[in-house]
Design brief:
This protein is mainly beta and about 300 residues long. About 15% of the residues lie in helices and about 35% in strands.
């Protein structure tokens, strides 16, 4: 009987070694490069996936973040971490997911993702303590799944001081070929006569629709207006709350316009560099191509705007 045990023992050992070898190979196999990574998106104050955001000192900041396990073979989410660097780093940064789980990002220690969130981790929190100091802070979220695959999201929050605009006025320009004035001076707070006002020299906003064509609001800076240009602000620019610093940042980031801007829509905001280093922000409030410019006027139309400086 003993002879039989020894006879089969090498086979048993061989099978065990083969099984062990296969297990080792499986554990060491790298994740295929085609395996999808987690999907992550973020927004700050409603603006999605920008590299940098300007916010006012002392203001609240709404940060939203969503991470999903990848479709088509991705594993469940495992951990999430946040690293911070800059003037407002390491402030208390605790968020609550849509499933009611808390994640404390006060340190860079990775947070275990709760089972309730491991396919879709989502949070939107209003933070009131990350804007105390003026300057830039960088935030980097890294979400990792159970395959060890990670997705990184990085953005900056630039805290700036707030200097309000000191005056608010309204203005209007009519069809340049009509019977009413088609040019406006933002520096002089007045319309400009085509006969006596030299709009080419003095107009910041001068309609340039031509005779017998519909009024579109199309305008340009006076042809001989020195050192004046403007940019069209993004849809996220808030005319009602904008500070001079926010206007400057939007102007610096925009594409400078020195010729015609067309088409125009109600709600558009333009930021003007008035040539002396000052800025004016202009919000279009009315665009009426049928507004009468007087008896016998064949070229109707008016654009009304509000502006701050």
């Amino acid at each position: 009987m003993k002879t039989k045990y020894f006879k089969y023992l090498p086979l048993v050992i061989g099978f065990a070694m083969a099984f062990s070898s296969c297990s080792d190979d499986d554990s060491d196999d790298p994740v295929p490069s085609s395996t999808p990574r987690p999907v992550a998106t973020y927004s700050v104050n409603g603006s999605a996936d920008d590299a940098s955001y300007d916010v006012l000192r002392g203001s609240s900041v709404v940060i939203s973040y969503t991470a999903r396990s990848a479709a088509g073979g991705g594993k469940d989410l495992d951990v999430i971490s946040l690293t911070q660097s800059g003037v407002n780093a390491t402030n208390n940064f605790t968020v609550t997911s849509s499933n009611g789980r808390d994640y404390n990002f006060s340190t860079a220690v990775p947070q275990q993702i709760a089972n309730a969130d491991d396919n879709n981790l989502s949070f939107t929190d209003t933070l009131t303590n990350i804007t105390s100091q003026v300057g830039v802070t960088s935030y980097t979220f890294v979400v990792t799944d159970n395959d060890g695959l990670s997705t990184t999201s990085t953005f900056d929050i630039n805290v700036i001081t707030s200097t309000p605009f000191t005056s608010t006025d309204t203005g209007e320009v009519w069809h340049i070929a009509g019977l009413k004035r088609g040019s406006w001076s933002l520096t002089g707070d007045s319309s400009i006569s085509a006969v006596t006002g030299n709009p080419d020299m003095n107009a910041d906003i001068m309609n340039n629709n031509v005779v017998s064509t519909p009024f579109t609001g199309s305008f340009e800076v006076g042809a001989n207006r020195a050192n004046t240009d403007f940019v069209k602000a993004s849809a996220m620019f808030d005319f009602s709350t904008a500070s001079k610093e926010m206007a400057q940042a939007a102007y610096d980031a925009g594409n400078k316009i020195t010729e015609t801007v067309d088409p125009i829509s109600v709600g558009d905001v333009f930021i003007f560099n008035l040539g002396d280093g000052s800025l004016s922000i202009v919000s279009i409030i009315t665009l009426d191509p049928s507004a009468s410019c007087g008896s016998g006027c064949a070229n109707p139309g008016v654009m009304e705007f509000e502006y701050k400086k």
